[in-house]
Each structure stands twice: as structure tokens, then as C-alpha cells.
Give the backbone structure.
Amino acid sequence: MTETKPLEPEGSSSAQEGTPNLVIPRHKIRARVMQAIYAYIVSETPPDEIFAHLLSEMYEAAQAEAPHNAQFLRELFFGVIEEMPAIRVLIEKHLRGWTWERLFLVDKCILLCGVYELMHFPDIPLRVTLNEWIEIAKSYGTLRSPGFINGLLDAIRRTLAEDPTTLVSQKSL
């Protein structure tokens, strides 16, 4: 039987402590939330049911290991759903030569999550948010998705940074 390597959160190393770090990384949380948003959009199932079926196990594990990651998961999922219409409008304003309807559904989900994260998590550096969603686009999107996601998220970041009342304007890249 082979041993599995414990999961590590962003910016940590279990080698520093000498003990395995069991915390579920936010990268994995982001990917799972994006998948849950996808399921929500295609199935029109109530958010609480989607959460129960797709996210509750990860939420419980994160709650036991690192409550701040469990809170991140819950806030990202329910926040994206709650603000989806407003985030969609913001994304549509930045589309050039595309319409919302023409976008690949996975790219829509990545953009919705990425924009929400840019706007609502003061403890996460902008560069981390951008890089994480680009990496998720590499794993789940098309060959063109990473560049597309990068360009749109960065354009939205720049627009939000122009307004001194936004969280984005208060964080450095």
C-alpha cells in the first residue's frame, strides 16, 4: 500500500514543522467551489442542496482542521450565488467581442468565483487570487481559458482598483 502525501495550504510547508499538515488547501477548495457553482447553474438545484451534496464533506474536514478555510469555502460558494447577477454585469462590461451566452460554462464559473474573491477577501493578496484562478482554468478549461481568464480578471481588477471605496483599491498587486 502506498502512502498519500498530506495536503498543504497555500504558502505553508509541513517540513518546517516536522509534522504532517492536514489542512485542506484553498486551491482544492476553490476548484471544488467552482464545480459546485457549475452544478448550481446547470441544475438550478437550491444552493443548500448543492452545498450538502458537493461541499459538506470538504467543509466538515476543513472545519475540523482549519476553520478559516471552512469559512472561506462557505463564503465563496454562497457569496458567488448571492452576487451572481451583479458579478455577471461586471464581467459583461469587460467582454470584448464576446457575449456572456457565448462563454464556455467552466470559464463563466471561474470568472464568477475569481471576481467574487477579488472583491471580498482582504486577507488574500491580489496576485494569489489571480494566479489561483488561472491555474484552475489550466486544469478545467480549454487551451485558451487561462489567457482569457487572466485578461478578464486583470481588467476587472484594474477597474475595481480605480474606485477608492473597493477592497481591491486597498490591496497591492
